[in-house]
Amino acid sequence: MPMTVSCPTCGRPVIWNEGSPYRPFCSKRCRLIDLGAWLAEDYQIADGTDDPADDPPPSEDSSQTH
Ligand SMILES: [Zn+2]
C-alpha cells in the first residue's frame, strides 16, 4: 500500500513516490496556487498602507434629514 499525503491546496490524496513530482501537492497547478497565496499574503503585508480613498468622506448630505 503506497504512502499518501493530502495535497495542502485541495486536500486530495497524493501518492508519495516518483510518480508525483509535485508532492506534497497533487499537481503543478496546486503547487502554484499555494505559492501564489503565499506571495499574495506577503504583498498584503508589504502594502500595509491605509488608503483614505477607500473610506467615504464625512457626508454633508446627512444634515438634510430635518
Ligand atoms: Zn491539489
Counted by DSSP, the helix tally is 1
CATH architecture of the domain at 1-45: 2-Layer Sandwich
Largest sheet at a glance?
2 strands, antiparallel
Mean pLDDT: 81
> Tally of extended strands?
2
Gyration radius, to the nearest Å? 23 Å
Under CATH, the homologous superfamily of the domain at 1-45 reads Erythroid Transcription Factor GATA-1, subunit A
Provide a concise account of the structure shown.
The chain has one helix at residues 28-46, and strands at residues 4-6, 13-15.
Description of the structure:
Helix content is 29%, strand content 9%. With 66 residues, it is of the alpha+beta class. The protein has a domain at 1-45: Erythroid Transcription Factor GATA-1, subunit A (Erythroid Transcription Factor GATA-1, Chain A, 2-Layer Sandwich). The chain has a two-stranded antiparallel ribbon. The longest helix is centred in the middle third of the chain and has 19 residues, at 28-46. The protein is rod-shaped. The termini are far apart. The structure holds zinc ion (ZN).
Question: SSE layout and pairings?
Answer:
Blueprint: E1 4-6, E2 13-15, H1 28-46
Antiparallel strand pairs: 1-2
